[in-house]
Design a protein that fits this description.
With 179 residues, the protein is mainly β. The chain is built from no helices and 11 strands.
């Protein structure tokens, strides 16, 4: 029998979790989901979570049969003034045979990540590149001046991995930090 499950909108507000009495609570201000699951798979129209520290959203398609083909778009954004300002936009496309992941980071860090993962069940492997356009180390550690840029590449599988890269740190007011 073909069955369709449709959640037009599930909304939860003001959730507070604690692992144990006295622990700092985890607060979820808002959670939303809207999806349809039918013979074509799962169409995720909305998945969102908002917390004081940040927000996540995603939408896309997943067919949980065969090689599990999927196409998803995600967004993560920091909201807390105690955290560096970051927005990460992601795209995931492919299946268990080959999955392409693209992440673009903006804000205190500007970077692009591209990874292709292959044979995720039988013999997982990957190749990827992280291009760092601008990273201000002082955002994370005030004692380190300058701007970090560079590229890191990796390939591998579960038996071995290779990583290579070139990074540059440039500081106008602290030239001894340049490398």
């Amino acid at each position: 029998l073909p069955v369709t499950i449709a959640l037009d909108k599930v909304a939860l507000d003001k959730l507070v979790f604690t692992a144990a009495p006295g622990d700092k609570p985890v607060i979820v201000e808002q959670a939303r989901v809207a999806l349809k699951w039918d013979q074509q798979g799962i169409q995720l129209d909305e998945l969102s979570v908002v917390m004081p520290e940040g927000r996540f959203s995603g939408k896309g398609n997943l067919n949980p049969v065969g090689n599990y083909p999927l196409s998803l778009a995600t967004s993560v954004e920091t909201l807390s003034p105690e955290l560096p300002t970051l927005k990460i936009s992601g795209e995931y496309a492919g299946d268990l045979h080959e999955l392409t992941i693209k992440e673009q980071v903006t804000g205190a860090v500007r970077a692009d990540l591209q990874v292709t993962a292959s044979q995720l069940i039988k013999a997982p492997g990957w190749q990827g590149t992280l291009d760092i356009e601008k990273l201000l180390p002082a955002t994370f550690s005030p004692d380190i001046p300058g701007i970090l840029t560079g590229r890191i590449k990796t390939t591998g599988n579960l038996q071995q991995a290779e990583v290579s890269g070139a990074l540059s740190l440039r500081a106008d007011k602290a030239v001894e930090m340049n490398w």
